[in-house]
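User: Round two. Same drill as before: sequence, then structure, for each protein.

Assistant: Same drill it is. First protein:
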Amino acid sequence: MTDKSPNTRRWFTRRRGVVLSTVAAAAAAAVTVTLVGSAGAEPPEVPEFTTPVDDYQAEDTQTTCDPTPKPGVEDFRDLILESYPDTSDAGIGRDCDPKSVKKIEHYEGDTSEHYEGRAWDWKVDAATQREQADEVFDWLLKTRDGEAHALLRRLGVMYIIFDKKILGAYNVDEGWRDYNGSNPHTDHVHFSFGWDGANQETSWWTGRGEPTFCEKANLDFKKYPALKDGDSGDEVTAAQCLLDKSGRPTTDGDPNGEYDKATAKSVKQFQADIGLKETGEIDSHTWTALLGRGSNVQLQEGEEGRNVSRLQRALTAALETTVPIDGKFTAETTAAAKKYQEKAGLDADGIVGVNTWRALRAGT
């Protein structure tokens, strides 16, 4: 089985504590309706950013079962509902059975980012609330500081579906295209996010002000030890931050570095959701799944960047041996990737793509 897949890029995020106007206008003109506006409602305020706009999110569809709502999606939902209080929430996560997810092969059933907690349905009606929807689309797709579709990219939105039309970040220049799925999406807008946006790793969340506690936390260790109730230290803090990012916070505030009952409960929930044995303790499989979370970006020797570091952490945990974590895909990283792929039953070619990431996220 090959593990080669198109490169995946990123966009959207949160911090705890365009459709071009012409395209949107054309979409609105396609249907003649009476519009009902929100009295005094307007799109969310746009903060000042200190970092460049993100790349467009590449297509990175659902491959696993992990329906717990992700923090970037939850905060985007709250942001929109605060701005448009006469609209409502139609849900983020959708129940699925982790046992029906083939860790290497495929997902059995329909495909939806709702199953990974990284899609949100905004309940607005195409016939009576198009004005609100179009305002949000324009807000996301407006050119800002010379960057087209700026907030769509900063938030990490992958695609939007509404009223029999779909707009993908991965082919945004094509504008709104006909959508022929079984659900016409006339009573809600569907937003799907890439993993970076869902995990609050895009510049909407990280590109303003001081970094958060977990953004500064150390995740790089020569080994990832087994952890249980009563343990403490930097490794516990790292695990708590990873759990928090997965949508399973261990405290109301910043992680405390103490493996307490609340941490054990979050670990057990994470294990149950992805199909691991529910021990409430962190072993190599749980570390691997926590560290491997993120996009299915294809990587191979010569690549550099934070996704390479993510891979190196996950391989260190999975192989229970030190893989240098320096963000550089060297021959040593290739050797580790091949060793892991062989262990996971994949083609051991050292090229890391969707199948390798899927196995890592499953804790294989």
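Second protein:
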Amino acid sequence: MQELMALAGVSDVYSASNDLFKAFLGIDMSVSQVYRVSSVLGHQINVDLAQEVSHPELLADEVIYGSMDGSMIFTDQGWQEVKVGRLFSSLRRREAGQKEDNQTRFRLEQSTYCAHLGSSEEFIPLFEASLGHYKNTPERLVFVTDGGVWIQRYLEENYPLATHILDYYHAVEHLASFSRTHFQKAACAAQWLDKQRNYLMVDGIDEVLSNLEGLSNLSRSAEESRREVMGYYQRNRHRMQYSQFQERGLQIGSGSMEAAHRTVVQCRMKRTGLAYQRAAVERTGGSGHAQSAGSS
């Protein structure tokens, strides 16, 4: 029963827990009971956070994808960032139909998550624990992330033999932001952006940088935007070899990371009119790691 109470406590706001018990079990359950059980189990989980997650041995053609990022939630101390990490095997990635742009949609059958409300220094040991023995085969690791400086520094310093990929769609969004700032007509912005996206996909980062540099008559805001995107690309060019990555059969987007934030953090903790105490966040999912099957 305590497991069910804890599940109700992390699945929805505490005030809704009695509705769940009433609907599924036909019994009444006080909100305070659910709160107490969730608190106790949450504290117990915190004790076990440093233990490494157990993973099966890697198969011959298997690689492990890893991503991490942060999202904001509102607490009694103001807006705070919850950092989330996600790991999954290339063999757990399945086709699931087509997107609107005719690209293949994938779903993940199993993932390992870790999350922490706090600093990167506090989060990194959790991510290390979630990696388990995968740390011993860094050449089989593929990290797909955005341009976060602390993320890139940590991963490249600790896993230089891994494959490091800048999320393609994040890279394109920087170009899209510039194009909206520079071009007055939406059609011109879309046409220019489409060409640059194609260059990026075929390792044409130098062509993109040249095209950016060749633009003239920029407004002050467009000039600032161009300087930002060019610096961003130059810092990350070694992570933008997209055609080579795709030839190896690797994914180049981190949409799974965005889905992780919605699943692990925002579904429970980012709701209209709610502000959590920091300690309550840690009890209901703001710190820890877990494995999940049937994830998106």
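The beta strands are 64-75, 78-89, 93-98, 104-108, 110-117, 141-145, 163-166, 287-293.

User: Perfect.
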